[in-house]
Request: fold
Amino acid sequence: MSVESCTAFLRVARQDARVRQQMKAMTGIAEVIRLGRVHGYRFDDRDLMMASSSAAADDEGGGEREPEPAPPADAATAFYHYEYDMERIPGFAAVIEELPKLKIKPDTVDLARFDERFRLEDLRSTSMVPGGSDHRRWRAGLDAQVDRETRRDFHLINLDDHVGHAAYEEYFAAKTRLVDALEDVFGGEVRFSGSMWYPPSGYRLWHTNETQPGWRMYLIDFDEDFDDPQHTSFFRYLHPDTGELVTLRERPRLVRFFKIEQDPERLFWHCIVNPTRRHRWSFGFNVPGTWLDDLAGLS
Ligand SMILES: [Fe+2]
Reply:
């Protein structure tokens, strides 16, 4: 275990085209440590932290994760979300082919323990206006009771935290192929931003992601169709211009794009709730700001 070993691996990750693609498919620290080991480099999370910060400090531009350029100030977006059926997006056949291999339920996840952490009052906070007085009061109460073991705003499973199960290798290979497929469609760099499994009653409470501005694309799918289109999982956001709560009901094989803003006046407050018996998966990506032009002709 050493920082040197980790530094050497990060160098390979920048220079070797295949490893570079694999790095774009990972969002978890455990994943990077595992991939390093696969390539013969042994390091731990502390080594990774130190090696990453010194790589960032003396990076000459070929860095591991380049910041997205800030959007021009006059490029305010009138539309805050776009949704499509996956089948309708040109070039998405290869994406659809990989999706079943990503919808995993790692056997290292303890679902009974997950269910114990469900809190009805937390779920109900998704009906409040974020930043409003009710939400602020509720949030202050939550912050006062927070313990380090649990993050109550995430009642979901981050698949990329689970690398020690038998299905991981095939899952990771599928993620890497998916990055290739999406880069073919968009003609620019695509990176995973998160791979989430929302079991029944899963939720992600109101948040803004303001530290990572730019366009995000999510591939969303389920274990089965919904019986009732009025009783589904949903994505909800606070419209930055009108202040209205917009609730987007979901269906299988859905692609959603939305834009994360950094301007304090235009933060993109959003939350996700799965109040159903279906299992929901969502795979997020940072996509080029030109994505709408790349998919020209869709409406
Ligand atoms: Fe988010």
Confidence is low (pLDDT under 50) at residues 60-75. The chain has ten helices and eleven strands.
